[in-house]
Amino acid sequence: MKRSPTAGDTGRPAAETDDTTTKPSRSVARDEAATGTRRTTLGVKPAEAADAVAAGNDVPARKSGLRTRFLPSADRRGTGKPPEHQAAAPSKDSNRKPGGPRKNPPHPHPPASAAGEGPARRTAKAPAAGRTSDRPRPRAPDTVRPRPVAPSVPAPALAQSDAPEGVRLSKIMSERGLCSRREADEIIERGWVFVDGQRVSELGIRIDPNAEITLAAQAKRRQMEQVTILLHKPVGYVSGQPEPGFEPAVSLIGPDNQFDRADAQRFHPSHLKGIAPAGRLDIDSTGLLVLTQDGRIARQLIGDDSKVEKEYLVRVEGRLDERGLALLNHGLELDGRTLRPAKVEWLNEDQLRFVLREGRKRQIRRMCELVGLKVVGLKRVRIGRVKLGDLPLGQWRFLREDERF
Predict the structure, then answer these.
(1) What pTM did the predictor assign?
(2) Strand 276-277 relative to strand 286-292: parallel, antiparallel, unpaired?
(3) Annotated active-site positions, please?
(4) Which of 70, 216, 325, 380 could anchor a disulfide with 192, C-beta 3.0 to 4.6 Å?
(5) Which pLDDT band, with edges at 50, 70 and 90, does 310 fall under?
């Protein structure tokens, strides 16, 4: 029987079996080992064709050539194509007798590259040298390790020591009546204040509310030099900030208008430095007005917790019944705030006496309007225990050392 020449022929006769495979030469074996491919034949048996027709499928065309099964290599991994330098091998069917049995049936599931279904699927690495099995090793699934997350640590609570402790020294000095807060800052900065025997010269310092506070001799002398002036203010002068067309009441303080110059200290321009009215008196009102350099007195008279009485004589027009008089004593509101209790009584048929413990803007006039009265004259005659007395209109005098509000 004649044999067909095949690639890698060594001159020996072909195998006498019906289904044999031509043995590749050593050079082809080296190529297969280098490229990671294996040469097989692809054929179709008649029985397979009949089964395909019965199933309604197309009969696969009989092909002779290579069925390449790729194994990954350094330069061809995942490409799905055989190396270009690999030579084509003859089909196994060319050496098989017609109708003879097949010794090695084809693989039931040809690779996608041979069936024309796209690139071959990536397989495991090529077997190591000396391994005879060409079955790809199963690849372990890629495991994604979660990135370690640092445990959440709650933010530390604000330490108690971080919060400001104590009360401002200037505030305590003002509350104790040692001086005003503005004056406290001045004498603290000069180093004239001692807290529990320790000199303090730092502004804004906080101390224990129960600490002992003393003033240096210089601070006491300075306070003794501060003056408080009593003025009988005429109508038409404003007690506080000047208004267009009107003069401030402080303009009346001078040597010519001093009532007690015969038995008191002489006026000096320094007496006007830092002086301010301790309480208001309307521009169309007259009577006692206090102006002072001493913050202690100012706080005593106009502080939020002041309980110093102010007495007024008020001339009114209109009719007032018992119910209206009761409302003037207590029960009225101004600007949404209930007024403190007052003392209001008739002095004569057209004059009322008011004693108040607060000083709201135009308070008496607005109170009278609420009960149907009109104020035609208002005069303040007393503040605390200090009376206007016989002080002439438009003149002033110093507060004496024996006088206290």
Answers:
(1) 0.54
(2) antiparallel
(3) 282
(4) 216
(5) very high
